[in-house]
Amino acid sequence: MVRMRWTTLSRCLTLACVFLAAAGSAQTASSSFKVGAGKRDITPKEPVPMWGYGARHDALSTGVLDPLLATALVLEAGTNKLAIVGLDLGRAPAEKSLQKVRERIRADAGIQHSFIAGSHTHHGPVLELTNEEGKGKGKFDAALRYYQELEDAIVASVLDANRKLAPAKMAAGSVQLDGFNRNRHTKIEPKPVDRELAVLRFDDSSGKPVALVVNFAAHPTMLPASTLKFSSDYIGSMRSAVEKELMAATIFMQGAAGDLSVNPGENKGPEAFGQALAREVIKLASGLSCKEIFEPRLEVREKRFQFAARTDLSNPLIRVFYANAFFPELVPNYADEYAEGVRPRLTVGLLNGEIALVGVSGEFFCQHSIRLKERARLKPVFFFGYGNGYHQYFPTIEAAAEGGYGADNAVAPAAVGAGEEIMNAALLWLYEMRGKLSAPPK
Q: Under 8 Å CB-to-CB from 96, ≥6 apart: which residues?
């Protein structure tokens, strides 16, 4: 009789221990999914050449319409950390600056992976100049001083986000928006348009929104080229309205906008359009229900490709053409970038086995993102353009055959078909990360 009671008690204690261990394991797993957000002003303090319109040549900025910001999100999934940084700039920082930033956040915060991308505003500073004679030194020293300030500010925004890491819940969703963007390139019907607005929402443990990642594709070119003042265009207006309503840090990541522009309709000007887009973001985000992530997983892969250039910047006549189209100090810096061909970067992340993050270092035409989303069989797929470098336009093969701005070799230097090759690599990685395909032997 005593033996039976002792056996029963022993079993109960064992079950209790198993339950407590499981509960502890779940709690530990849950707390290993963390998110933090940070922000810094990255507006140049001195007049510098402006990025986005060749007709400006080397005209210096004359002021500020609204501040340019670096908004950062740091995500910790188990032992891996990822930074997603949205910049109110025309492009990502130049290669040397990019690598300095990445090295610093890796050393100071253990952040192994990052998407650092420009919103593609055409009212930000030129980022390609370097501290060498004929390439910026002596004539544009203010721009060179700014690059160090920019690196410091991006790092500060990321480290601020890292310090704020706290247990988080997550949800993702997307919606198709009619009438917000249009294809500005092709004359062939039907014109492809990626209308997807995608949102990643992160809540704290109490259910309060902490941060949003907003992904949409449309050129921020609503202000005239003649305006020589810094502005985030419609993105700043959108971000301010969302943050005011939801009290959550909002990181905007531009999509595959190479051939897509804003379709303002009744929403004339960046302020009105930004607020209209914000209403759609708020509606989508408010309808998402964040869930705890008990077994967070993050895998990230990255590769630099190498393609033959369609433009020979070693040719003196071609260099004169570009010097007249832009300004002389810019051209040798591009020549250095493309000395070994065009070397775009692809970064692909898979979060929790179901959310795809695909980043490319250029202006990809929208059919690239549309086809990738269809073929990946994941929803949503976040497509980040203008990030981790900048290698100009990547038209589809059929767009290159049609020709026109964005598809010709003047601004699309990579060999025809480069975009398709990069997208195929992204697709293979996403299937390999999910265990549906085996990676080839190294």
A: 130
Residue located via tokens 């991308």: 117
Cis, bond preceding 220 (omega within 30 deg of 0): no
Evaluate whether residue 121 is within a structural domain.
yes
Nearest 5°: the CA angle 136, 326, 59 is 70
Eight-class DSSP state of 184: -
Please count the structural domains in the chain: 1
The candidate with the shortest Cα–Cα distance to 344, out of 386, 379, 287, 312, is: 386
Write out the H or E segment, with its range, that includes residue 95: helix 95-109
Beta strands in 42-176 (DSSP E): 50-51, 63-64, 69-77, 80-87, 113-118, 124-125, 130-133, 136-137, 166-176
- Taking alpha carbons only, the member of 363, 372, 358, 349 closest to residue 420 is 372
439 in any annotated domain: no
Residues 6+ apart with CB under 8 A from 377: none
DSSP-based three-state secondary structure for 31: helix
pTM for the full predicted model: 0.92
Q: Are strands 50-51 and 124-125 parallel, antiparallel or unpaired?
A: antiparallel
Task: Show the DSSP H helices in 377-439 as ranges.
Answer: 397-402, 418-433
pLDDT per residue rounded down to tens, the chain (442 residues): 444 444 444 554 444 444 444 444 444 444 489 999 999 999 999 999 999 999 999 999 999 999 999 999 999 999 999 999 999 999 999 999 999 999 999 999 999 999 999 999 999 999 999 999 999 999 999 999 999 999 999 999 999 999 999 999 999 999 999 999 999 999 999 999 999 999 999 999 999 999 999 999 999 999 999 999 999 999 999 999 999 999 999 999 999 999 999 999 999 999 999 999 999 999 999 999 999 999 999 999 999 999 999 988 889 899 999 999 999 999 999 999 999 999 999 999 999 999 999 999 999 999 999 999 999 999 899 999 999 999 999 999 999 999 999 999 999 999 999 999 999 999 999 999 999 999 887 7
3-class SS of residue 182: strand
Domain membership of residue 165 (yes or no) is yes
Distance of CA 70 to CAs 119, 138, 337, 343, 428, Å? 10, 28, 25, 25, 32
Instruction: Give a yes or no: residue 16 inside a domain.
Output: no
Domain that holds residue 165: 32-433
